[in-house]
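Key result, reporting period 2: structure in, sequence out.
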């Protein structure tokens, strides 16, 4: 689910900040967390309803933001990586809120 993506992304940001500030001792943990974020995205994709085209487009765009970040994060400054993670986390929060709104709309239509 997207909450798992959000939490793992926040953790990846924190561990990455430590690594990019020079502490290589947690680099393996950071790489493992990156794999966890990728797995969480893959799992979340299996739960999307294709009928929700607007949410699907937003999901795809946000996932592409993660893929772009993950591909270059090793070469970024700590500040740049932190800022880009934070931007992605904000997009995830919007995406989660939009899914809640859609679900509520569907639910309330049947009341």
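The corresponding designed sequence is given below.
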């Amino acid at each position: 689910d997207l909450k798992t993506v959000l939490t793992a992304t926040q953790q990846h940001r924190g561990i990455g900040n430590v690594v990019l500030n020079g502490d290589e001792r947690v680099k393996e943990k950071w790489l493992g967390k990156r794999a966890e974020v990728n797995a969480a995205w893959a799992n979340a994709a299996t739960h999307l309803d294709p009928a929700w085209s607007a949410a699907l487009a937003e999901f795809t765009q946000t996932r592409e933001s993660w893929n772009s970040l993950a591909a270059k994060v090793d070469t970024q400054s700590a500040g740049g990586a932190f800022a880009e993670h934070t931007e992605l986390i904000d997009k995830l929060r919007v995406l989660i809120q939009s899914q809640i709104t859609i679900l509520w709309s569907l639910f309330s239509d049947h009341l």
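The mean pLDDT is 89. The helical segments are 2-20, 27-45, 53-72, 78-109. This case is discussed further under Risks and Mitigation.
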